[in-house]
Amino acid sequence: MGASAIREILKVVAQPGMISLAGGIPAPESFPLELIGALTETVLTRFGSAALQYDRTEGFAPLQAALADRLGTRGIQAAADEVLITSGSQGTLDAIGKLLIAPGDSVAVEAPTYLGALQAFSPYEPEYQTLETDDDGLIPESLEEVLKHKRVKFIYLVPTFQNPTGRSLPLSRRRKVAALIQRHDALLVEDDPYSELRYRGEPLPSLKSMAPGHVVYTSTLSKVLAPGLRVGYVLAPEPIARWLVIVKQGVDLHTSTFSQALAAEYIAGGHLDRHLPKILDFYRPRQEAMLAALDEYFPREFHWSKPDGGMFIWAEGPDALNTDELAHACIRRCVAYVPGRYFYPGAGQGLGTMRLNYTMTDPPTIRNAIRIVAEVFREAQSAARGGEAQSAEYGGAAPG
Amino acid sequence: MGASAIREILKVVAQPGMISLAGGIPAPESFPLELIGALTETVLTRFGSAALQYDRTEGFAPLQAALADRLGTRGIQAAADEVLITSGSQGTLDAIGKLLIAPGDSVAVEAPTYLGALQAFSPYEPEYQTLETDDDGLIPESLEEVLKHKRVKFIYLVPTFQNPTGRSLPLSRRRKVAALIQRHDALLVEDDPYSELRYRGEPLPSLKSMAPGHVVYTSTLSKVLAPGLRVGYVLAPEPIARWLVIVKQGVDLHTSTFSQALAAEYIAGGHLDRHLPKILDFYRPRQEAMLAALDEYFPREFHWSKPDGGMFIWAEGPDALNTDELAHACIRRCVAYVPGRYFYPGAGQGLGTMRLNYTMTDPPTIRNAIRIVAEVFREAQSAARGGEAQSAEYGGAAPG
């Protein structure tokens, strides 16, 4: 339901003249468009017809090898054949749902959490256990509480530059979470699409590197190459890995070989290492512009996340300020965002919250958009205060 | 289980020196490899970064339009936005299973049938109703019997050049099946990957064109472009079409935009029309070589399908001649095929049957392979006769 509400917003957003802070997609300027022709040539020369043929469900071997190398530099030890290629992260999440969730099983998720994960899991009819979060992401004590009292099938977490909040779990909390899942012998799905989009600060270790036997690690090339290729990957402990392959075979046989071959060349040829800094230099000023504009314009009652990377900022205001209703007023003034309530698994939460995306809009336009949203919010607040004042007046003068 | 047995066979087949009649894949020589570079250039010029970006779940609009045009020439009327793009036919079959099958629901399938369909459906725990077939494919009376006594969720059929048998439903049976599903208000999934691989004879109308409101039609570009792109498509009556989109969104968001853009250019640019005759000219002599070799070498107790197209010939011998056991003897002599029993939903059927693929092997090698298989079978038959004779002898001379 949340997903379809967001689809409606995104349709409105596609109208000309609209400034969208609503999307969750990379800027087209971040794609290595000028490389694709040369990559295609290399792929055809190197792999020939194999790049167009059916391939193993596990993945195109040269891509598995390139990703295993790259994961090594990020502190995750994996043999090439342990890296399974999926049709985007969504492909991983669906396979995990299909494999692990029987109707009524408990799945623990942050609130708010990534909507696409709920969409992937919900058809398998889990019961969601909600984990509490604050400005530093998941509160470990909340996870401990759930693990103590519930048998959860798995915990789903986006620990770095989360969607929708942009928040990252600090090292101390990562240690606690890793210890907790080991102590309770629990399984955690670590969804990590954004960690390479770091604009400042030091990388944080993945949970996978801290508790490898208890973590299914999934990531994607959507943010560092191109989402249209639909290439993701997953590292899972046995026997889950073996079963994920069997599930995937029934779902799509394998991921596009041609997409995988392009990705393999992009990584192994050193293009990703050369291109990634350009993506970061492109996004960093957009994020800084949004943070500065929020400081400059947003009502004092709001506070927001200040991430070191990723694609989103999360703003929280008073519940009375219903961001869902006000989204319509903003759209009338040609600015769109996603109301935060849709990212909560349960109803009635996050009424005063919102997700703001900065990847698709240039800095001056971001500044202008935040100014407009702030104006709409202020007007709503003063109308509400006027209404209160009025109703107090009328209350006083009520016929009785 | 059948699938994993076949995977084992295909692993053996990958060994050097092995002649494979076991695969079910197009010859790499059939791919328009020399076009891919130019298609990539056109795609990048025409669509730019949109070819690398997230796209609508329904499909890349230019591909939807190109396929709608093409379906029109095959007697299937469809608007562009009714043609939904999937990640290969497998993507369609999985989405259909997820959408339509609740545990215990009846799904009617031919025996033998396409294994990938069983693999896609079985995780949703249907009960299979087996439909009888003969040399002309599905026997309509068998379908009528099932529809009279069972509420089936849907019927799954490959009516043209079926996998594994190569058989096609003749026009008169198509009319009966179309009338039956309309009379019983039943839903039929028509899987049509092979009908464009026609080496002789006139095209047969699709069931979709005869009973559009009762048929989900699915096809693929795997056999006429390249399977590695993982592009299939589906046409479904409402509300199934709308729900398939929602299901697909949770499974993989959308099919690779880049693959879809290449496919759109391949079709709309007239390349498919120019390339398809080359594929047919490449496969036709291979099929003729296999049919001739079967005539020349195979034991008289066998009979086999004589399809006008597709990728397979189905041979049936006496049950006593266990093709599963004899497959090992053939592999020792460096020839592989798939024993037919794996294509039956139930156990103990088709013990004397086998699927023979001719797309991957050149005519002289096909002739040689069929000769070897025939020899192995003859040796087994005469050993069995010898054994019988022997056991009769020993039986006669038995003590007691």
Written overview of the protein:
- 2 copies of one chain form a homodimer.
- The first copy, chain A, is an alpha/beta fold and 400 residues long.
- Chain A has 13 helices and 15 strands.
- In chain A, the strands form 4 sheets. Chain A has a 7-stranded mixed β-sheet with strand order 2-10-9-8-7-3-4, sandwiched between helices. A 4-stranded antiparallel β-sheet of chain A has the order 11-12-15-14.
- In chain A, α7 links the parallel β7 (152-157) and β8 (188-191).
- In chain A, α3 (61-73) crosses α10 (257-268), α4 packs across α5 (115-121) and α4 packs across α9 (240-252).
- Chain A is globular and about 70 Å long.
The strand order across the widest sheet of chain A is: 2-10-9-8-7-3-4
Number of extended strands of chain A: 15
Helix and strand content put the structural class of chain A at alpha/beta
For the biggest sheet of chain A, the summary is: 7 strands, mixed
Could you tell me the strand content of chain A as a percent range?
5-15%
Largest interface: A-B, 50 and 50 residues
Order of helices and strands of chain A: HEHHEHEHEEEHEHEHEEHHHEEHEEEH
Oligomer: homodimer
Low-confidence stretches of chain A: 392-400
User: Mind telling me the C-alpha Rg of chain A?
Assistant: 22 Å
Distance between the termini of chain A: 45 Å
- The number of distinct helices of chain A, counting runs of at least 4 residues, comes to 13
- How helical, in percent, are the residues of chain A? 40-55%
Approximate shape of chain A: globular
Mean pLDDT of chain A: 93
